[in-house]
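Section 3.1: Structural characterization of target chains.
Under the original work plan, the team committed to producing a structural model for every single-chain target entering the pipeline before any wet-lab resources were allocated. The record below documents one such target. The sequence was received from the expression subgroup and is listed exactly as submitted; it comprises 108 residues.
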Amino acid sequence: MADYQSLIKEFEYEQIRIIAGSVDPIEKAKETVEKLGLTYPVGYGMDPEEISRITGSFYEKERKILHATGLLIRPDKRISVACYSTGPIGRLTAKDVLSLVKFYKSKK
């Protein structure tokens, strides 16, 4: 999340909106937003099993956690790229997303 915040001006220049969702309750989500200085919207209180069913995100039943999922959504609301993590690594980095968007724009 901090990775995306660090490049927020570049995302804005490219007209890309960043949003995040969390299964954390509002208090913990607010704590994260404040700690990382996030200026983009962060949803909270999401049901991990429901989000897993809708998005395909990996839900770990034993620990009742949802692993990170990154989605790059096109202006027509279709998913362009999805990255599904099943552990602590395997995420779309901010730099990679910016590079990919610039590549897509260059092909128009």
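The chain has one domain: 2-106.
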